[in-house]
Known about the structure:
The complex is a heterodimer of chains A (240) and B (112). Chain A is an all-alpha fold and 240 residues long. Chain A has a single domain (38-238), classed as Cytochrome c oxidase, subunit III, four-helix bundle (Four Helix Bundle (Hemerythrin (Met), subunit A), Up-down Bundle). Chain A is 68% helix and 2% strand. Chain A has helices at residues 2-7, 18-26, 38-67, 75-78, 91-115, 119-149, 163-195, 214-239; strands spanning 81-83, 86-88. In chain A, strands 1-2 form a two-stranded antiparallel sheet. In chain A, strand 1 and strand 2 form a beta hairpin. Chain A starts with a helix and ends with a helix. Residues 1-5 of chain A have low confidence and may be disordered. Chain B has 4 helices and no strands. At the A-B interface, helix 2, helix 3, helix 5 and helix 8 of A face helix 2, helix 3 and helix 4 of B.
Amino acid sequence: MADAALANTGAAPARPSGWQGITADWSSDQRAFKNVSWGKAMMWIFLLSDTFIFSCFLLSYMTVRMSTTVPWPNPSEVFALTIGGTSIPLILIAIMTFILISSSGTMAMAVNFGYRHDRVKSAALMLVTAAFGATFVGMQGFEWTKLIMEGVRPWGNPWGADQFGSSFFMITGFHGTHVTFGVIFLIIISRKVLRGDFDREARGFFTSRKGHYEIVEIMGLYWHFVDLVWVFIFALFYLW
Amino acid sequence: MAQAAVAHVEGQQHPIKLYLVVWGWLFVLSTFSYLVDYFGLHGYLRWSLILLFMILKAGLIVAVFMHMAWERLALMYAILVPPVLVLVFVGIMVFESNYTLFTRIIFFGAGT
């Protein structure tokens, strides 16, 4: 009963838009997010809290970088790779960026095919997304190994300000963990899609709620957020 | 608004082409921001270009990939306004770091 009422994202009666819509939605003595299910709303609120976590990391990075009297290591040189005898600045990070953006593209299409009840295409695109994600984490592992071999530690490094290492490991480590969890959940959800759980409205083993293709969109929200965070890390940590 | 109401009859339905176009733009913008580093631009030009490409990419991802553009304003504002307030925190920490740097230079001597 409650299940049907809360999961219904169907055609809502016409409601006012603009500022009137905001006041009407929030003051309706009902749920504030009218055509968004609780699952999607809670994912958005979780992502908001995650935004604050990453904001705090990037802020503390900004603070240590601005307040140190020792020059900051040049990321362009630190993350350069020598390919075919020439040193290309930041190339690994650029490739990682393109991989993560591509994974976002395939995820967006997986959501679309999910709503069209195209099980095979949706699941296949999610598995491609997971593969891109796993590649990204692998390249991050390579990058960490390279830097650790070169002597970067959370308390120091050969090139400049000691805080470089701690900021780097903290920010990219937390982001990599998010990607890893995303890959795990992508595989779980794609298995459910492939099995037809959402066509049969099979109940989830954890929540016992009926499954809908909206789960794919909620998964997509998380995955796009991971890509979004990388946009900020790429700009503020690697390029700055 | 009518478009949003229709889109919600069965979840978010948009043509695949839209996603491919956004995907292409994200590639182009990422290439631009990489080129900022590749060509070694410096100073305010570098920083403003990096921030510009960052904001454009973030906007495309949130608006199209995460479907925020088709949500009702009540959700949009509830999710998008709080992160903007982080900018106040940024301001506070810039002030604080400048002070820390100042005291470090005064008491430790520059860079030693």
